[in-house]
Amino acid sequence: MLNDVPNITNRLLLILCRHEGPEEPELDDQKKEPDPPGLVLGVQIDDLVKVFAGSARPAVNCLSINFYEGQITSFLGHNGAGKTTTMSILTGLYPPTSGTAFINGRDIRTDMDVIRTSLGMCPQYNILFSHLTVEEHILFYSLLKGRTEEEAKLEVEDMLVDLGLPNKRDEEAQNLSGGMQRKLSVAMAFVGGSKVVILDEPTSGVDPYSRRSIWDLLLKYRAGRTVLLSTHHMDEADLLSDRIAIISKGQLYCCGSPLFLKNCFGVGFYLTLVRRIKDMRKLEVRLCFWRE
């Protein structure tokens, strides 16, 4: 059966990319699904604004959204929409111009040192130590988060199995393939008991097999964690996400589950057949075959 959620999100992003007027995209109640009841609030972004020096337009403009524990929320938007800037503010790389965010109840403006003890981050580009092995990377980040040596070693063994890299444990990072390096970067975000995990395009530039392995890792480790994921792959957002948030020009455009977006913006299925054929009878047979 065809799945039309990726088509819907593609359509939304295309509309936003073509939006060139001075007015900003607006979020109304019909574009935002009510927040799920009974879930623990992991991240709360409250009227967040970020304006870079020399720029007339805010990179993030009065953004407010909640992320919940036990869920994966996908951040979608065209290039320059404000996804990476928002993630950078949440991890403390940039200070907000105004507004704030709360991570597990703590304010990013005053409690960033405490927040980082339970925060995992996978940036858009791999940041690895060339001469450290796979095992040493996982062990180092686990110890850095406060695990005991015994707990860290157990976590290393479990993570190597989940990554499918037990035979690469003694391999230096510089000798790994691009897909393996990306899997290692994602794994390091989850180790050490991270309660909030932020992943900036975690599957960019990887082969389909590695991409599937990363998906399995995210689905296995999302329990008890608040996971924020940015991606340009619509099928990925549909498969992994409990909720999808689409932003444009630093503002939230719509937010909800894939099913909500389907009901709100879906216009049915599209099937386009293009074939040059001289005999019209053959064309009719071909179309009947597709109808079946």
Automatic annotation (TrEMBL):
Keyword annotations from UniProtKB, A to Z: ATP-binding, Nucleotide-binding, Repeat, Transport
The protein's name in its UniProt record: ABC transporter domain-containing protein
UniProt keyword Membrane present: no
Organism this protein belongs to: Oryzias latipes
SUPFAM superfamilies: P-loop containing nucleoside triphosphate hydrolases (SSF52540)
InterPro entries: AAA+_ATPase (IPR003593), ABC_transporter-like_ATP-bd (IPR003439), ABC_transporter-like_CS (IPR017871), ABCA (IPR026082), P-loop_NTPase (IPR027417)
Assigned GO CC terms: membrane
Range of residues in the leader sequence: none
Location of the ABC transporter domain: 43-274
Molecular function in Gene Ontology: ABC-type transporter activity; ATP binding; ATP hydrolysis activity
